[in-house]
Each structure stands twice: as C-alpha cells, then as structure tokens.
Design a protein that fits this description.
Helices cover about 45% and strands about 0% of the residues. By secondary structure, it is mainly α. The protein has one domain.
C-alpha cells in the first residue's frame, strides 16, 4: 500500500491499523518517520473514537496535501502558516485538531482564526 493511501488491505479491516498506516505516510517528514512536531496529532487521530471517520477525512486530496505540506515543512506549522492552505473549512478543522492535540497554542487576540466553538465537538 502506498503511504497516505487508505485502500483497505484484504487481510485486515482494523480501522485503527489502516488509519495509522495512512497517517504515517501523510505525516512523514521525508525521513520515513512521522514529523516530530506532528507526533501529538498522529497520536490524537490514531486514538480517535471513530477511526473510519478520520479515514474519510484523511482520504480527501486537499487534506492529504495540507498534512504533507505541514509534515515536510513546506508550510510553517503556525497559525500564519495554516492561513496559506485551502480550503478554509478544512483548514479550520485541521487547526482545531492541532490545537486540541497541543501542537498549536490557542490563537490570541486579533488572530483571524480565533473563533468560538469546541474543537472536540468536531472530531470525526
């Protein structure tokens, strides 16, 4: 199976296993390992209550592009860096996941991304 591809292997239908394998590919920093900065996100997604929902999200081309861009450091892992990504709704969801997992701090003051709502309520 290609890294970041979520084709379900015939030998296993374990959602967490399929998700973990796909996340390893999407969050690879170019060394064959998950980016150290994104390990907390990997752990949070891998332990998610509904792994098939996370698989659906991570299988979207724009989600794959955005995760790879952050893992490879093509886009800085900051609130400002996230503003370079699209589409905005998916980026808002990704931002919430990054905050919830402790990768990013809560936005402060006049940040254009400081919205209300609970990130936890939006987990797949």
């Amino acid at each position: 199976m290609q890294p970041g591809s979520h084709t379900i292997p015939a030998r296993s239908l374990c959602g967490r296993c399929v998700l973990a394998e796909g996340l390893r590919g999407l969050l690879d920093d170019g060394t064959g390992s998950v980016s150290a900065e994104l390990l907390a996100l990997f752990d949070a997604l891998w332990q998610i209550r509904r792994p098939w929902g996370a698989l659906t999200w991570t299988n979207k081309p724009h989600t794959q592009h955005n995760l790879r861009a952050l893992a490879s450091k093509e886009v800085p892992l900051t609130h400002d860096g996230l503003s370079q990504l699209t589409p905005w709704r998916s980026v808002a969801y990704l931002r919430d996941l990054l905050i919830q997992s402790g990768v990013l701090p809560q936005p402060t003051g006049n940040c254009c991304c400081s919205g209300g709502g609970s990130p936890r309520s939006r987990l797949p």
